[in-house]
Amino acid sequence: MTEEWQGWREAAETALYGDGGFYRSPVRSPDGPAGHFRTSVHASPLFARAVAGLLARTAAELGIGTVALVDVGAGRGELLTGVLAATPEGLEVVPYGVEVAARPPGLDPRIVWCTEPPRGVSGLLFANEWLDNVPVDVAEVDGEGVARYVQVRIPDGGERLGPPVTGADAAWLERWWPLSVPGERAEIGRPRDLAWARAVGSLEAGLAVAVDYAHVRGARPPFGTLTGFRGGR
Ligand SMILES: C[S@@+](CC[C@H](N)C(=O)[O-])C[C@H]1O[C@@H](n2cnc3c(N)ncnc32)[C@H](O)[C@@H]1O
Q: What is the CATH number of domain 32-133+193-219?
């Protein structure tokens, strides 16, 4: 029975990015994320125009005429398509869509589609609502005040408390999301820190921007933030 239980990180990894996972399956998500929820990317062309402006400013500050635009978690390439349409004349853009999902049909052939950020490029790395999709483990304080990993039962999503949180995860909680009261929960954001550090480190020079939902250390929600959207709900 024990193999029926997983940590939240592993469970979310499988559900989102496994074979047939939410973000990868053309059957579950034929229109990509936009088929389920709306981000600023889909809401208005103003957003792509603002990113195009930022890209131009980044190129000017770097003193380069050819600039990379790396969109991490590129969805179906909507932002890249919008920025290419809004790029000021005279600026040459090399666009990269970093995505676990397959290259969408009909995408502008200038867009390089890849699963990892290209290394050593100069320009703007932009991640809109990517980091909140990087799976993390969840911790909850038990009746004795000990923070334990929350485990999920594979067939039905039932939860139980697993082993105590230790090591680097415990140090992360201590620093970023201290827990004390029984029943309090936290998402252990360490994988997001590491993912972001890796993404930023791929740039030779330039600017990296993450746009996402957030809360600060002094105002953590007591029961965590896990939320899923499907079909607009
Ligand atoms: C919430 S959607 C946002 C899509 C788009 N950036 C937008 O704002 O509309 C998150 C996207 O990140 C992608 N993604 C998540 N983890 C990734 C990873 N490690 N590498 C590449 N893409 C990833 C997902 O497949 C999904 O398309």
A: 3.40.50.150
